[in-house]
Design goal:
The protein is an alpha+beta fold and 144 residues long. Helix content is 31%, strand content 23%. Strands 4-3-2-1-5 form a five-stranded mixed beta sheet. Strand 1 (2-11) and strand 2 form a beta hairpin. The relative contact order is 0.11.
């Protein structure tokens, strides 16, 4: 699938971006199909070939959420802005699962702890047996 996306260029702390079209899985810094424009986030200046962008969209190319919001705000493409998430879909699902697990654990912790039933232990009296001659009480001594 083709995607219109941004490719970071420039120096450290002074970036500018190229608006490119390439395969979705391809590295944005490698081989591209076409350079569609550039964007300077410091001056908020966008230079884009709107005819070529509309051509590629007409042929089934998708836009990243950031590019979509940028083109909608500059009135190059009609549509609505979309929510931008820096996390991948898999990471978002894992994060949602973890937060749900934490919420479940918090709910369990908030539940009242059942009271422990008291256990009564009855003491039975011990019977003591007195032996008169302890030496004769053993079987070996009694035989002699």
């Amino acid at each position: 699938m083709l995607k219109i996306k941004l490719s970071r260029q420039g120096k450290k702390k002074h970036a500018f971006y190229r608006l490119i079209i390439s395969e979705q899985a391809r590295d944005p810094y490698g081989k591209i199909l076409e350079l569609l424009g550039s964007y300077d986030p410091h001056t908020k200046e966008l230079k884009a070939d709107s005819e070529r962008i509309k051509y590629w969209i007409g042929h089934g190319a998708q836009m990243t959420p950031t590019v979509n919001n940028l083109l909608v705000s500059k009135n190059i493409v009609a549509g609505k802005k979309v929510a931008v998430s820096k996390l991948s879909k898999k990471t978002r699902e894992e994060l949602a699962k973890k937060t749900a697990d934490v919420a479940v654990a918090a709910n369990k912790a908030a539940e009242p702890v059942p009271e422990v039933a008291e256990v009564k232990i009855e003491e039975t009296p011990v019977q003591t047996v007195e032996v008169e001659n302890p030496a004769a009480a053993t079987p070996e001594e009694s035989q002699q």
